[in-house]
């Protein structure tokens, strides 16, 4: 794997010492080990859990050596701005809530975009990544662009007399598998193949762990939603929200989202999150109406 950085390799057994390089009022913070990087950023990342969800999701793969860490560093300035960068096998994760031109220059000096092989990915803060890529002559495409939402209090309350919210059950496993596959088609229209066994396994996991919820009307499933567990963080993430085409614009998705979110906030957590396709205005409007508010603009870019 080619390297995209100039600072020392991250050593899992290194010391906790941090080195600083200064360029035009921006500082590069490098770490003796990946664990030091995590410890340094842990409080900030956990405070913005849903923005960093993909990093938390990545950690088990790094611990099991399925993916390797090539570099992990921060770029900061004296006013408290920071960029958090993590380069792993095949991907570069870049996050920030605000940066300056000198910080971007320093980031561009670390990431040799021109040496990226085809299908290399950049994931994280949309504007940061696009600004970085526009500094280099290379071809790239946006694979997925999302708004990250979270909710602390549900808004509104609308009942639909003909609809009931229930836990997903084994009697509907076939229909739920078909809906999961249909959601996958809507979410990733350019994906070359669908894995029915994987969809079935996802449905069964949701049913067995009481994490899959549906709206039924006249005994038939119309809408489905799955709660994604986040291990020890107790910050549930809602996903795979899908309504059958013939049952759309009836309020079923909002009913399901509102009911499940309210239950989670009352009994499990003080916050819920979800990731939304930015190109689906109807869904984004529904999320806001239920009480979700955007907290991050996320993108996944692939080098051609």
Number of strands: 13
Strand content: 25-35%
The run of helices and strands is EEHHEEEHEHEEHHEEEHEHE
CATH topology of the largest domain: Aminopeptidase
Instruction: Give the helix/strand class.
Output: alpha+beta
Stretches where pLDDT falls below 50 for ≥5 residues?
1-17
CATH class category name of the largest domain: Alpha Beta
The best one-word shape is elongated
Based on CA atoms alone, the radius of gyration comes out at 21 Å
Placed side by side, the strands forming the largest sheet appear as: 1-2-3-4-5-6-13-7-12-11-10-9-8
Number of helices: 8
Taking the sheet with the most strands, its summary is: 13 strands, mixed
Mean pLDDT: 90
The total tally of domains equals 2
Amount of helix: 25-40%
Q: Distance between termini?
A: 17 Å
CATH architecture identity of the largest domain: 3-Layer(aba) Sandwich
Question: Key terms for this structure?
Answer:
304 residues; alpha+beta; Aminopeptidase; 2 domains; 13-stranded mixed β-sheet; 32% helix; elongated; disordered N terminus; FR47-like protein; Acyl_CoA_acyltransferase
Q: Would you give an account of this structure?
A:
The chain has two domains: 18-138; 150-296, Gcn5-related N-acetyltransferase (GNAT) (Aminopeptidase), CATH 3.40.630.30. With 304 residues, the protein is α+β, with helices and mostly antiparallel strands. Helices cover 32% and strands 31% of the residues. Strands 1-2-3-4-5-6-13-7-12-11-10-9-8 form a 13-stranded mixed sheet, with helices on both faces. A hairpin with a 2-residue loop joins strand 4 (82-88) and strand 5 (91-96). This is FR47-like protein. It comes from Hymenobacter psychrotolerans DSM 18569. Residues 171-304 form the N-acetyltransferase domain. One of its GO terms (molecular function) is acyltransferase activity, transferring groups other than amino-acyl groups.
